[in-house]
Structure formats: C-alpha cells, structure tokens
Amino acid sequence: MKLLKIFDLLEDKIRHWLSHWPILYAFVGILGIVLTWRGIWHIADSLGLNSWWSLFIGVAILMVSGLLIAIAIGDEVLINAWRGRRKITEISLGETLTLAERVEEIKSLLNKIEERLNAKKKEEEKIAKDLEKKID
Fold it and tell me: What confidence category does residue 116 fall into, taking pLDDT thresholds of 50, 70 and 90?
C-alpha cells in the first residue's frame, strides 16, 4: 500500500510539472504509448502469433471489455452522436444562454414539484392522524 501511495504522489508531481509544458507532456505521452505497444508487439512475436491471430485476439479482448467502439470512435463523440448533440465549439453564445435558461426553468420546475410532494406528504400525515383518532 505504501508503494502505491509513493507512486501516486510521484505521478501527481510529474503531471503537475508537465502540465506547464504541454508540448513536452504530449511527447512524453506519445513515447509511453509507443514503447508500450512496442513491448506488446514483441511479446506477441515471441509467442509466435501470426497477424490474423493477433488481430482476432485483440478485437475479441476489446469487444468483451467494451472498449472497441470507445477506442475507435471515442466516448464523447459516441455519446454526443447518440444523443444528437453537437460539439461545444459548434454551439453559439445564444444557444449557450438558452441552455442556461432551460436549466433554470428545470430547477424551478423541480422546486415546484418538491413543494407539491411535501404538501401531499403533510396531507397524508394529517389523514393518518385523523384516522388514528377515529379508530381510538
């Protein structure tokens, strides 16, 4: 557990430092990805997997884990397309303000619903008390 905490703190410090240098951060990330894939590639070669088996096993792993579409398309793109939304960069200022107004309308509506529910609960409690008095 202590070792994990040390690595977590180290990761936080490195990410914080790299966040000030975005281009360097990108190159470090690319280097990590390339070296990881190179290692996986060499492991597959050492196991004697041919290209078709590697492709089949890789796709099967991604499909079973649910990552195939997320990796190929991207979660955000997929979710937005499914919901019929556009990218945030495609939304105009007027639409953004309209969305903010809609959020306020929804909040107001929820408050009204909550008030009505509370009133109904009070009525139910009053009816229950009246029934208890009549039964006694």
Answer: very high
- How many Cα atoms occupy the beta-carbon half-sphere of 4 within 13 Å? 1
pLDDT grade, residue 92 (50/70/90)?
A: low
pLDDT value of position 118: 93
Hunting for tokens 């690319």 — which residue is that? 30
CA-based end-to-end distance of the chain: 62
Q: Where are the domains of the chain?
A: 1-48
Full 3-state SS string of 1-21: CHHHHHHHHHHHHHHHHHCCC
What's the half-sphere exposure (Cβ side, CA atoms, 13 Å) at 77? Answer: 6
At which residue do the structure tokens 């909040």 appear? 107
Q: What is the pTM of this model?
A: 0.43
- Calculate helix-pair angle for 2-18, 22-46, nearest 10 degrees: 130
The residue type found at 1 is M
